[in-house]
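INPUT
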Amino acid sequence: MAKQTHAMICPKCGAEMNHHADKLVDPVTPEDRKHVNAALGGVIEETHCCPGCGGLASRREA
Amino acid sequence: MTNARPLNIPVILGTTRKGRMSAHAARFMVNQLAKREGITTELIDIAKLPLPIDDAGEGIRDAEFSAKMAAADALVIVTPEYNHSFPGLLKHILDSCLKEYIHKAAGIVGVSAGPFGGVRAIQDFLPVIRELGLVNIFWDVNFGNVASVFDETGKLLDQAFVKRADKFLNELVWMAKTLRYGRDNISID
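OUTPUT
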């Protein structure tokens, strides 16, 4: 599994977001199971926050 | 730390039971929050949310509830104690979101008909709060013997709860500000 290195852009205001958390979640769907990090035993959900408007967004580690 | 956005701290009323005394506690907490400058709040009554029981987790995510959680900087969760724990429907609705909660503050208000003020429900709740990515504060508000704390109209009969709520909210606001700064500015990488 590779960490995504490009910053997320806030869907509300267009500012660059801050990647502040990685949450390990259990795979639920078949798509999730394709992205399981074997070393960690789950899927990494990256959480990003916008310092401009407070918006949040997330994405799965690719 | 400068951030002009007001802190958004909704209060979740975590029971759907008819005649719930927790509604008085939740409205009291909303009123205490509304007196503070720089804070927006609202009551989120889980009895007014769509709560399908033929699925669970993100499968029942409600767009409006999700948006409110995403916009929140902290949560006040008002839970009664039913059979020594918190209501299942409260967990059912909280489980419908995840990313919305991460690195946000949570304070728990316990309510009980008996003397213990929901302490057993709160103790049960802490692992759930942690797993959802919320950060729990070390103050609670415990409305024990709740029928003697509020009258039937919701009027507060014991003024000591004003001071207790104030201490609880001071800690919650501090944690909310700190975590917002972290979310906005400090990278996990």
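end of record. Chain B has one domain: 7-184.
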